[in-house]
From TrEMBL:
<keyword id="KW-0326">Glycosidase</keyword>
<dbReference type="InterPro" id="IPR043472">
    <property type="entry name" value="Macro_dom-like"/>
</dbReference>
<feature type="domain" description="Macro">
    <location>
        <begin position="85"/>
        <end position="274"/>
    </location>
</feature>
<dbReference type="GO" id="GO:0046872">
    <property type="term" value="F:metal ion binding"/>
</dbReference>
<keyword id="KW-0479">Metal-binding</keyword>
<protein>
    <recommendedName>
        <fullName>Protein-ADP-ribose hydrolase</fullName>
    </recommendedName>
</protein>
<dbReference type="InterPro" id="IPR002589">
    <property type="entry name" value="Macro_dom"/>
</dbReference>
<keyword id="KW-0862">Zinc</keyword>
<keyword id="KW-0378">Hydrolase</keyword>
<dbReference type="GO" id="GO:0016798">
    <property type="term" value="F:hydrolase activity, acting on glycosyl bonds"/>
</dbReference>
<dbReference type="Pfam" id="PF01661">
    <property type="entry name" value="Macro"/>
</dbReference>
<comment type="similarity">
    <text>Belongs to the MacroD-type family. Zn-Macro subfamily.</text>
</comment>
């Protein structure tokens, strides 16, 4: 496995001729420095439509994506301290079964991570964009986009908000990805927004339980481009997960709240107390 920078650069250069077709690829090659072949490969994969690769390209991609995963590192979700352990004074009712963690969700080794998807389920198609949808698709590799394309094609319509779909994790440390589309908030939060966000969390947990998955890591659904106020979303996430765990004992062993940045971490800490 090539997990050193030089080896990953070499693999990326070997991949570039196979990814360089199309107008979008041509534009990217003019805007990303050729001295950063790994960034260019990531960008080209981001704008590529779902579809098969030649076997030689699949082998190169698998080697490169495995090396990228090793370079990012892997965090054992089972070794993270629970909220009860980290915050012994908390009054959060699900503290023993939940974790509050700030980190890169694509490094987390759990049974499933949750992707805050858009209705197309295919990622955001914006190179280098730091939304969780793009980050997860980039780390998992193009098979994830192909799987999501198959789901949307089979159902014959975009994914409705408040539901959930499951795919393999491919090159992620997580075994599976749970994809959910949260509500879009452009004004005051309504009862419909709240119900949809509750449904996203519950449907993900229901889907995990039905597949025998024991650990799930949530990103903060709908709080980025979809505009849900962060504190309101955090309160709802904490309450929904606690209620689900209380009413389904043994359904899932561990839920990780993966927050983005110090502000969100402090927000969750304030809400759980302790």
């Amino acid at each position: 496995m090539h997990d050193d920078p030089a080896g990953l650069d070499d693999l990326a250069r070997r991949l570039l001729p196979h990814l360089a077709g199309g107008a979008a690829a041509s534009r990217l090659r003019r805007t990303i420095a050729p001295t950063d072949p790994r960034a260019l490969v990531r960008a080209l994969l981001t704008v590529r439509d779902p579809g098969p690769f030649e076997p030689e390209v699949v082998r190169l991609l698998d080697s490169w994506l495995s090396g990228e995963r090793a370079a990012r590192g892997v965090v054992n979700g089972a070794a993270l301290p629970s909220i009860a352990e980290d915050h012994p004074g908390t009054g959060y009712p699900a503290a023993a079964s939940t974790v509050l963690w700030e980190g890169d969700i694509t490094t987390l080794a759990v049974d499933a991570i949750v992707n805050a998807a858009n209705p197309g389920l295919l990622g955001c198609f914006q190179p280098s964009h730091r939304c969780v949808d793009n980050v997860i698709h980039a780390a998992a590799g193009p098979r994830l986009r192909a799987d999501c394309h198959a789901i949307v094609t089979a159902q014959g319509h975009p994914e409705p908000a408040g539901r959930a779909q499951i795919t393999p994790g491919h090159h992620l440390p997580a075994r599976y990805v749970l994809h959910t589309v949260g509500p879009v908030v452009t004004g005051p939060v309504t009862a419909a927004h709240e119900a949809t966000l509750v449904s996203s969390y519950r449907r993900c947990l229901d889907l995990a339980m039905s597949h025998g998955l024991r650990s799930v890591a949530f990103c903060s659904i709908s709080t980025g481009l979809y505009g849900y106020p962060r504190e309101a979303a955090a309160r709802l996430a904490l309450a929904t997960v606690a209620d689900w765990l209380a009413t389904r004992p043994g359904g899932v062993d561990r839920v990780v709240f993966d927050v983005f940045g110090a502000d969100d971490l402090n927000l969750f800490r304030r809400l759980i107390g302790g």
